[in-house]
Amino acid sequence: LVRRFGDFTAVASTSFDVHRGEIFGLLGPNGAGKTTTFRMLCGLLPASSGHLEVAGLNLRTARAQARARIGYVSQKFALYANLSVRENLEFFGGAYGLGGTQLRERVADAIKRFDLQADARSGDLPAGYKQRLAMAVGLLHAPEILFLDEPTSGIDPLARRAFWRTITELARQGVTIIVTTHFMEEAEYCDRI
Predict the structure, then answer these.
(1) Which residue from 46, 83, 123, 151 lies 20 to 30 Å from 133 (Cα-Cα)?
(2) For residue range 130-168, what is the model confidence (pLDDT) as tens digits?
(3) Is pLDDT of 30 > 90?
């Protein structure tokens, strides 16, 4: 996998595979190309060259089908700050194709599971709760693969520990987790790095 921006090579001949239910870590300092790799694997950025396959689907020929099977939690809060927790969940649930009773049940389950206040304005949440909401949105459509881009950056140690408990439980349930981090102690939670 290669990604160039003009003369600059952001990702240089990276190759790896990840097994179902595995927690796979991309470890490296800021600027190492972790987020660029993620964006390619999520179908958000085209690769300059190489073969991209996610959930058994080629991203060059089946991008929409692959994206429907993955969840993504970005490094920075990327939800709508002016919407409530419930409104964000409902909006993104609809974008994932959920509706009616299924959407209402999934939103209620997410609010309960991540201990969120449904009517709280998302932009006013503390950093740890913003990440909980982002994780809830990423899991709403029950993806097979969850991409977590430095998910615990900027949150307190207790929230970080709780976040990793959730990640470990998801992997036990068969969800494949691919996580970027520059924290060595977090890399120890991964099955492979």
Answers:
(1) 46
(2) 988 999 999 999 999 999 988 887 777 888 888 889 999
(3) no
pLDDT for 24 beyond 90: yes
The single-letter DSSP state of residue 176 is: E
Residues 40-46: what's their mean pLDDT?
A: 89
Helix (H) or strand (E) holding 147: strand 145-149
3-state per-residue secondary structure call for 18-86: CCCCCEEEEECCCCCCHHHHHHHHCCCCCCCECCCEECCEECCCCHHHHHCCEEEECCCCCCCCCCEHH
The CA radius of gyration of the chain, in Å to the nearest whole number, is 16
The answer to whether residues 48 and 3 touch, using CB atoms and an 8 Å cutoff, is: yes
What would the two tokens of residue 113 be? 């599971």
pTM: 0.89
Residue 22, token pair as written in the block: 């595995």
Contact 95, 103 (CB under 8 A): no
Q: Which residues of 56-85 are buried (b: 16+ CB within 10 A; e: fewer)?
A: ebebeebbeebbebbbbbbbebebeeebbb
| 107, 140 Cβ separation under 8 angstroms | yes
Rounded to whole angstroms, how far apart are CA atoms 13 and 83? 40
Let me know if 153 is exposed, middle or buried by CB neighbors in 10 A (0-12, 13-18, 19+). Answer: middle
Structure confidence at residue 128 (pLDDT): 84
